[in-house]
């Protein structure tokens, strides 16, 4: 095996960085969705949701930076163009959504996709003994599961 300066298998680390780049692209789509629904929300729940969406996009922006920095820490280059993000993203794109329920459903659908990717990374980072990435994914998953639960409760839906 070929180990890098972090003491991790270089080949496994490269694969993890690729998965992190996919997560980065999906987070950028999620972030942009949140900005859109924050700007365009209308109706009786405007004030509550406007604030909530701002909270979520601020958090997503922080996570985008953390993911990019982790990719760099692993010795790779983070994706950084919209073209790359569009090609790599599976998160649904929300366009012209202003209805409260449709907005919250977009958040749930987006987080569901992010959680799938994060669980794949969690498994790969565990197998590679990459505690830094593993810890990050574990924290993201815990937080996002709670957000999904709260949004589903708001929608009056079960997990």
UniProtKB/TrEMBL annotation:
InterPro entries assigned to the protein according to its UniProt record, in alphabetical order: DPS_DNA-bd, DPS_DNA-bd_CS, Ferritin-like, Ferritin-like_SF, Ferritin_DPS_dom
Record family assignment: Belongs to the Dps family.
Residues annotated as domain Ferritin/DPS: 18-156
CDD domains reported in the protein's UniProt record: DPS (cd01043)
Gene3D superfamilies (alphabetical): 1.20.1260.10
Domain of life according to the entry: Bacteria
Pfam short name (any one): Ferritin
Protein name: DNA starvation/stationary phase protection protein
């Amino acid at each position: 095996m070929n180990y890098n300066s972090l003491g991790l298998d270089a080949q496994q680390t490269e694969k993890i960085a690729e998965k992190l780049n996919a997560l980065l692209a999906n987070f950028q789509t999620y972030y942009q969705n949140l900005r859109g629904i924050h700007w365009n929300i209308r109706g009786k729940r405007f004030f509550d949701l406007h604030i909530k969406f701002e909270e979520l996009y601020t958090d997503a922006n922080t996570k985008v930076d953390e993911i990019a920095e982790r990719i760099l820490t692993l010795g790779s280059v983070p994706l950084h163009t919209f073209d790359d993000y569009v090609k790599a993203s599976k998160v649904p794109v929300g366009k012209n959504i202003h209805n409260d329920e449709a907005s919250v459903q977009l958040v749930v659908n987006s987080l569901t996709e992010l959680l799938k990717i994060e669980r794949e990374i969690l498994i790969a980072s565990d197998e590679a003994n990459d505690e830094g990435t593993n810890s990050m994914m574990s924290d993201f998953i815990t937080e996002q599961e709670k957000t999904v639960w709260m949004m589903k409760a708001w929608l009056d839906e079960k997990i």
